[in-house]
Structures are given as structure tokens and as C-alpha cells.
Write a structure and sequence with these properties.
The complex is a heterodimer. Helix content of chain A is 77%, strand content 0%. By secondary structure, chain A is mainly α. Chain B starts with a helix and ends with a helix. Classes of the chains: A mainly alpha, B mainly alpha.
Chain lengths: 169, 345
Amino acid sequence: MLALLVAQNIAFYIIAALMVFGAIRVVTCKNLMHAALWLVLVLAGVAAQYILLAAEFVAITQVLVYLGAIIVLFLFGIMLTRTKTGTDDNLDNSAGARRMAALIGVLLAGVMGYSLWDGFGKREFGDLLVQRTAQVSDSIFSTYLLPFEVISILLLAALIGAIVLARRD
Amino acid sequence: MIPMLASFAPPYWLSTVIKVLVVGAVVPTTALILGVVFLFKIMSWMQSRLGPQEAGPRGLLQLLADGVKFIQKEDIAPNGADLWVFKAAPLVVLSSTLLLYVALPASAHLVVENLDVGVFYVLAISSLSVIGVLMAGWASANKYSLMGALRAAGQLIAYELPMVLAVMGVVIQAGTLSLNGIVFAQNGGAIFGWTGIGNPYILTQFIGFFIFIAAVQAELTQPPFDMPVAESEIVSGYQVEYTGFRFLIFFLAEFATAFVFAGIAAVMFLGGWAVPWLSANSDWYYVLGPAVLFAKVMLVSFIIFWVRFTYPRLREDQLQSFAWKFLIPLALVNIVATAILKVVF
């Protein structure tokens, strides 16, 4: 078990370093298409981290939704609107917006770090079990049924709203 | 021999090496088999011509000769191309294909990774090849490539949905997302108490099978869904600037993906690696399983390529409305009907 945890930790740090590097490239890249492709690395890293946490259902959902749909939509949008290869110099936001983004970033990291620390503290994760998909679906359709249905209605409303906005007639 | 295979339990590193080697060998081999059998022989037969005759006995080595030719060619990239992305794109497409083979079971134990959520994994991974296609189309700096990639993305997004929905019927009926679990459910099933041929889901899920095959055809961008590569109007779309071994990689990925999707269809609808008269727990499947699966894969591939060689290309708007206005509603009706019948019986 210990050996596995060591391997897990090493893998975690390698993937985390790759993700941080990718995330920095996403915002510093001068080429919009390259930025989107660096984002692929970050999102794939998230999926890999989920697998390390033995949450394969969440990992595969991450791949299906973020890599298979959202990134494709990004690339599609970029290709439809700007088709030239090469760099673009006016991609940066104003200094004010950058300061705001840095502030929000630090704030989010603080809140999330604190809640993790507060919630788990010194709990050991040595006995982490593979999370069966059946368990996930069982808890969604029993304990969390109401939130699940509320989200479904919300998404349905968003879907209909998008169609209404996009229709020309 | 059989008990020896059954008790073979190598250490982790060795089994990993074996798995990598097997997948690395199986992907080009399957692409070669489908290419020779269907693209050369069956297509020629359907079009009343002989096909390649010179290389090897009855021209069987033609594709191998073509492969050698591709590898010898100079690696050319257009001047305006975004070099890194241009060179990485075929590899992204190929890696999506390699990852698909991970989940395909050739018997209860002959599977690279017996995933608990095999079906879901396959659907998620198959959507990754679009990223490679978009990369290829954009990085080529060619308007035909760009048009092809845009069409490919639109098509793959549209046909992803019916594919997921078509699979749902099988999953509801089998009660599991595991590909091996689906094989066991069909092998041990019964048709109103008659266990003669198990319960292959093609009998109850024939609508799902039809939708799945149509969606696979579209994901492979094969005729009649080949608007993204339509050679007569956008000269092979996103592949137009590729030559040599990079083109070969696209070709390999397309045919290997056709094979693995035919395999997934065989597992979900035709009983996979099992035959009805032999219990799925039998050790015989260590040698029998791959052969049975291969036979079923060739059967499904025949359907896929039959359609490919005989139907004309759909127009772009027909292609989109076929997915959104016909396949998706049909798949939804199929899911509702399957769920109701599952509760009733």
C-alpha cells in the first residue's frame, strides 16, 4: 500500500507540474489556437488526477465533457472567426483586468485551500477504494435526487433559451 | 495448453509490457486486414473489377507495398503551416485509436484493462480524435483543410449524440456499463425462457444497432457521411497537405478505428467473444474468444463497408438533419421503449 502511495504521489506531482506549466502557457501564449491546445493539456491533467484518486467515472466524464465537447467547441469557434496561423499581439487584457484576475485567483486558491484543510485536516487516505460507478448513480438517484432534478430543469431551461436566442424567425 | 493459459499470471511490469506490445501490433494489423479485405477485395468485387493483382499472391501484399512507399516518402510540410501542431495532429488521432483498443475484450481475461465503465470509456475516448482533426485542418494553413476540419467537427459533434443514446438501450438491458458484463449478460440470457442462442441484443436492440452503425460510419467520416474529406469538392479536407508517413498514420487510424468500433458493436449487439452453446466462464475462450470476436468483427465491418461502397455522399444539410431530426429522436424513443419493457418484463 505504501509503495502504491509513493508512486501515486510522484505521479501527482509530475502531472500537477505539467498542468501548472500548461495553465501558464494558456494565458501567456500569443497564439489563440495554441492557447486552446495548452488548455487541452490542463484538462487532460485534471482527468489524470481523478484517475489517481480512483474516481474513474468522474475522470471519464471529464474527458467526455471537457476534452470531447468544450475544447472542440473552442477550437471550432476559433477556426470560424480567425483563421490565420501565427501570433496575435492584441490578445492581452488591460492592466486593470489583469490585477482583478490575479486578485480573484489568489482569493479562490485561499478559499479552496482553507476548505480542504478544514474539511480533511489530518485524515489519512490510505484505504481509498475504487469508487464504483454504481455507487455514484445510487447516491445521485436516492440521496441527491432533488438537486439532480433541479439541475436537469436548469439545463433544460438553458437549452431552450439557447434555441430561442439562436432562432432567426 | 488451455489450463496453462488460464493460470498465466505475470508480474505487473511484464503484463504491462505485453499489453503495450499487443496493442502496438494489433492496431496496424487490423488496419491492414480491413484495408486488404474490404478496401481492395470486396470493393473491387462490388464494383465488378479485379482490384490490385501484382504485389504478392492475388495482390494481397499491395497494402504492405503501399505502406513501404509511404514510409519512404519525404516528410513535407507546407510553408505557412504551424509546424508543431501540423506534426502532432496525426499522432493525436492515432493515440485516440490506441486508447480505444484498451477496452475491447477478446475474452473474459484477454482485455488490456477490464474497465468497470467500458462503454462509457469508449464513447469518451472516441470523441478525442476530433481534436486531432481540428488541429490538422487548422495547422495546414489551407482553406480546403480548414473547411474539411470544420465540417468534420460539426459532423462528429452531431453524431456523437446518437451514438451515446444508441448504446444506452443496451446498457439498460444488460444492467451494466462493463463490456465484459454485457457479453456475460447476452451469453447467459434467455429469449422467453429459451436459452438456445442466449440473448444477443441485436434481436431487441435492432434500432440501437442501426443507429450505432450509422453513427460509427459518420465518426469514421466514410461515405455516405464523408463531407469532411469529400475529395471531389474539398480535395480530402483536413488530410490534403499530409503526405508520407503522416498520411499513413491517418489511414491506419481510420481503419483501425473502424475495426475497433466494429468490435464494440459486436460486443454490444452480437454477443462479443462468446458463442451461445458454450458458457462464458469456460476456459476454452482463451483461444476461442479472439477467433469468435474476429469473425463477428468481420461481419459488422462488412456491413459498414458495404454501405461505404454503395451509397452516394449526403449533402451537408442532409447530413446534419439526418442526425438531429431523425437519429436522435429515434434513439430517444428507443431508450424510453427499452426502459418501459425492462420494467414490465
